[in-house]
Queue: 2 jobs
Job 1
Amino acid sequence: MKKKTMSLVQIVEPDAPAASGQPRLAVGIDLGTTNSLIATVREGQVVPLPDEQGCFALASAVRYLQDDSVSVGHDARQCASCDPLNCILSVKRLIGRGVEDVQQLGEQMPYRFQAGESHMPLIETVQGAKSPVEVSAEILKVLRHRGELALDGDLFGAVITVPAYFDDAQRQATKDAATLAGIKVLRLLNEPTAAAVAYGLDRQAEGVVVVYDLGGGTFDVSILRLSQGVFEVLATGGDSALGGDDFDHVVADWIVQQSGSSTDLSPGEQRTLLRMACDLKEALSQAESVTASYGDWQGELTRSRFEQLIEPLVSRSLRACRRAVRDSGIDTGEVTAVVMVGGSTRVPMVRERVAQLFDCQPLTDIDPDKVVAMGAAIQADILAGNQSGNNDLLLLDVNPLSLGLETMGELVEKIIPRNTTIPVSRTQDFTTARDGQTAMALHVVQGERELVSDCRSLARFELRGIPPMVAGAAKIRVTFQVDADGLLSVTAREARSGVEAHVEVKPSYGLSDEAVSRMLEESMAHAEDDRKARGLREQQVNAGRLLETVRVALQTDGDLLDVAERALIDEQLELLEQLASADDQGAIARQVQKVNQATHEFASRRMDATVRRAFAGRQLEEL
Amino acid sequence: MAISLTEAAADHVRRSLEKRGKGEGVRLGVKTTGCSGLGYVLEYVDDLLDSDCVFESHGLKVVVDEDSLDFLDGTELDFVREGINEGFKFNNPNVRGECGCGESFSV
């Protein structure tokens, strides 16, 4: 028998999976407010990964115990009522937020907060102060462990989903949590985008996709436009205090009312009642009528009665949808697909009402609890390089708010406008405003408004060591770079000397979703005011610059003027200075004109004098 | 002992590196795979690691990590054409047996 020779080997890129080798273990993680999930692509199939008990959803609950151990999941949630201070629920509402934001939320949360360094709120527990990033990392560690057990190896990396309205700070904090949990983040992906990917909508040429996400405790609606493989977030909306749990509450209230039992229930009784209400709700997704029994009482809950009970809640979600449609500027007729996410979208009435609103049958084939994690898994598989030749399927996102720099007069110069496809890099040249200026302060802001004070400050840094030059001669090239996760880095470089300064924007805390939508709304509402304000500021800057130039000139060449001429100029300057501090744009512009006229003669005399000085003592031949 | 390239292999590596535009040299290694346990790895080198042993052959850097060197010491890398296939061949004196699938070997 002839021995087969060893096959020939080719040189490959370092880190690239060998063609015949094992695929890299990449997972998608849906880090949710109530529950978290992990999924992967195995032999071309997207599969959610269960825990040892066969349960897919991991309760996003973390309990810090006295003995230094940490419990995550269902057990931790069970203890929320007996050990409220050490059981952290819904940590997603806190991640990337500042102390002030948290204090507002704090009313609904039983934890003791303290201000940590860089404004990050810390939660006091028996194991010391814990940041939301650390708490989230505990959840991610459990999921990572689950993934490594199921896939039998180290994870190569993960795609983690975040709400579309998450800002830079919240995204960065989520990424930090993953790093802390030992997970390499291949990419952060917007949750609605992940859901659309799970249904393969990214493979369509174009269209408008509505993602209706009714979870346990939160409701989100996102309107996405797909064109040439890019999902642009047109609008987001929702209600951070509306979810399936509210359905359980109205059913529980109904039982209490019908059975005539006392409304004064112990926490234990309440839990039993809510559990029962939840079971009834779930049964009614299939059955037309179910029997409820509580204590001695027994009653019939029909689907139509149930629908009456939840009607106000469903209507609330639809109002948020209509608002989002309005914000997005689309017509409901343009909607090409509606994706249903979240367990509560199993309720038939929810599906019907959503179908009615958008005049479009919603997509419900994929388990709505798992669809986000599954979309993330598909993206992770592509990013890990397991689908060779499919790189063009790489999803692109857009940045949710414009990014810019503060310029003179506290105006914002937008460098990367909102809804620009990321990753992106944009460069703009700036210069010095004063003669001999050797340093420049750069202030990076995020928002849609024209004035710095109306936008959110992301970072400040300085470029030092600029060689002294006359104003306007230095060329400072500022580059804004947003990576695929929506995180920003800014570099400033002076072209002649090559001095450089760089900042990674890691804001200490972020904006709430309400704040983002409020800022967007304000930018629309204030567009006219802003234009005026911008015009005024520009005139004020003009006036200031003129005042300074003339005064410097008067100091050096004042002897070129006689007393009367000098008095006239001084008077006009005085007037300009007064007007510049008021807010009549037209008056400033007119006075700038007058100063220009008044100094015209002075300027030409200075020019002559300079020329004379320059030529003095030289022979004509030298010129 | 050392790791070396034949002239044909060196020419091909040099051409490949030029085409790629960057890279310090090539890395030879072994990984667990196939039915006899070990398979060869050949990749470009962008970053050298502390545990790397670097050999010079025909003016090119040949990099092997410590762990792989036990299995590869004395290997000569050749570039050959077999029928319609072109590729690199490891002439490895340590090999005791090659497997039927042609993917792996044992030492």
Note: DSSP finds 15 helices and 28 strands in chain A.
Job 2
Amino acid sequence: MLFGGNGRKDDLVLECIRVVDPTQGIDEVLTVTVEQGVITRLEPTATTASGRIVAPAFVDPHVHLRTPGREDEEDIASGTRAAAAGGYCAILAMPNTDPVIDSAAVLGALVERAEVEAEIPVGFLAAISKRQEGAELTEMIELAERGAAGFSDDGRPVVSAGLLRRALQYHEVAGRPIALHCEEPALSRSGQMHEGIVSAELGFHGYPSVAESVMVGRDLALAAHEGQPIHLLHLSARESVEALHQAQAAGVAATGEVTPHHLCLTDEAVRSLDPNLKMNPPLRSEEDRKALIEGIRDGTIAAIATDHAPHAGYEKDVPFEEAPFGVTGLETAFAVLNTRLVEPGILSLATVLERLSAGPARIYGLEPPRIAVGAPANLVVLDLEATWCVAHDEFRSRSANSWLLGSTLTGKVVQTVADGKIVFAA
Amino acid sequence: MAEVRPLLRDELLPPRRLERRHLISIADLTREDVERLLSLARAFGRSLEREVKKLPTLKGRTVVNLFFESSTRTSSSFELAAKRLSADVMSIKSSGSAVDKGESLKDTAITIGAYDPDVVVIRHPHIGAPHVVARWTKAHIVNAGDGTHQHPTQALLDLYTIDEELGGVSGVHVAIVGDVLHSRVARSNIQALALMGARVTVVGPPALIPRGIEALGCEVSYSIDTIRDADVVYVLRMQRERMLEGANYVPSLREYTARWGVTPGRLRPGQKVMHPGPMNRGVEIDAAVADAADALIERQVRSGLVVRMAVLYDLLTHGPVEVKVAEIEEVA
């Protein structure tokens, strides 16, 4: 299910470092020894004054690698290099490429490229419907056999309730998670930003919260009816979180994810008309942001996903209204969450680390990265005190459409080990 | 765990700020800015009563009008305003230019920037276009209308007209009627009128009044009867070209006109009527209303000239370009 990034298995000793692994209940100073890519020793040591910690490396369940079709914006090598620099040991790529990943042949070609080019292990979701047109199901069993990590028409909703129902029924045998982009197009229409006071002031067609939450409600109802699990992508609205919470309480196997930008920003930011603040779903109100943070805190939302969406500079340097949706996020996710949510005491470090790593891994049935003797080394060393400035020229990603350009962040990825191999060192 | 605290201003705004002085949105202006501009416009108004109307004030300055949308009054009035101030003016329309060949706005801005213009006046169908030109030229930018966002000089000329006609803006009650949702004029006017202490009521069908518009400082009514309470009835153009097909904001234009058209019977004697033009007679405004003595529509056009002179002058005299303020006082 994950491909590439194999090969070398490194040796490594991290002496006297604070080890934080929420899934193992560890938060203590240890010396960590890695031999041949496997954690072999965890030894108690003296305390440390360093701001560095080591944690299970991150898993990003929602990345756009733009390959095939738009390799000028990102390719497997650049995207996985960016992920390594962001502390990730595995990422999952969405299938809304050109061509769409909707057949075993296209998926197979991509897997072969990943085996050669990927810096860290990468998985690929395949489309639910052919060409993501929402009309015909893809050959989900064959795609699963060829290694699809899951299924999604991300970028678009599955408009037809009937088609989604069939996909859920087929999931019984195909067996890989179905991830849904919840948007009712008749309500989002040509909406450019959240419908609210700011859109009224700026004159934009609004993309109301209800455009997401009615689809969340419908998809949860279908999942309940079919008794199948679903994963809800990039949640943005309070009503969606509430609906997910209620469905989970009623026993529906539904999971959710949220992006760093939805946790850190509101529609107020759009007043600048910076195209790097244009994304789908849009930034919403402070009430929505609070509900998303609460969802992360109480576990309703199990994963933080970047929805890393690279765009060429010439495509984004246009009037806001003409700009495509999407922002990059792989290289800034931890730092911005640490700066905006952990440091002010809004979320605990342990919660953020868990939602960046084990949370998303479990959703897709991946082995959660952990710090334990005998486990493969999937580690990230973080300096919680280091500050750095997000600069246009320093991204490993081929694109620089980050909403954080020019911002100073606290918390830096120092080293990343993915599947036993040191893939990044600052 | 700490409570989620409200976002700080520094966290909301991205790092790229516009450094030069521009006129992009009424929201960027203070009451003092507006008062200064209106007083400058009055001075220019007096200068236009003279036989020789041209002033040497902006001699040697270059103003580029960049129009990506059709316009009669705005483009002609900016052009004449620049000429009356002796600036060199160049007007570029999207049709017949490199834009027809698919040139991006950024490249057009860079091309024009190569001439070192002092001011670029831009009209564009999309929100945020003036920001792109501001990023890629060193000129002062004047927004002459960007999509459904803002049209600040229209609001300033409307303030000027009301001020001249009613002897002030503060305390005046203005009803803005029609398609507020798609109207940059409405947004700029609500903000400008509220800033100057006027009372504003927007009136129209629910789907054409954006939710949350009250935050700009206005009241909302869905009944045309409320326009009778106002001193000024400001009629918006029913922008048929912006109505998405099948969007059903109103069932039909016929129903719109029957329910929200401004007709003589819905007005009180002495109420002033304004319209930013171009009018759809018989749709949002009855022909008899448009032609009545209380209609200020032609006055608005006249105001446009002096207000745009004031805007050009103000940007070039308070900004990085050194022009002595005394010059205007002499000519005025």
Note: The first helix of chain B runs from residue 9 to 12.
